[in-house]
Design brief:
The chain is an alpha+beta fold. Helix content is 36%, strand content 30%. The chain is built from five helices and seven strands. It has a seven-stranded mixed sheet. A hairpin with a 4-residue loop joins β2 and β3. The chain is globular, with a radius of gyration of 15 Å. The N and C termini lie far apart (30 Å).
Length: 165
Amino acid sequence: MFFVRSASGRDIPAIRDVLAETWRATYAPFYGAAKVEEIIADWHSEAAIKASLERPHGEFLVADDGKMIGGVAFASFAADTKAVSLHQLYVRPACQGLGVGRDLFAEIETCFPDAQSLTLEVDPGNEPAIAFYKAHGMEETGRTANCGKGESGIPALILSKPLAL
């Protein structure tokens, strides 16, 4: 049984393991192993995770069963637009289908009481993730040619949903 809690600095190595394992399993077929390792080294480095943990108006969650971290979620809130951006929601392949993603997503939805909307980016080829998000009320609202950081060159769908006040 996993429980969702706020992440701390001591979780950084476990968070990095979840991100690396999930990216290798999910995205190597799309981008190739070399590109995935490059992204892991940049986007999922210990320094990048630490920066997310310390980000103002951010919330970094982990799903923990006392023995391992089964999933992670990171979102941030922009007060000027009242929008939450879900930057990361990843569940270890061995933990998928156990409700870990559902529980992390539900908790993110409640972390920002002033939020009016939730937005995320997802690879258009990641059909399981798209199905998951649509099952949780997300709808496609746009597209980008540069998912994630900077000029990544990675296309993504933009999914959004209103949040209840």
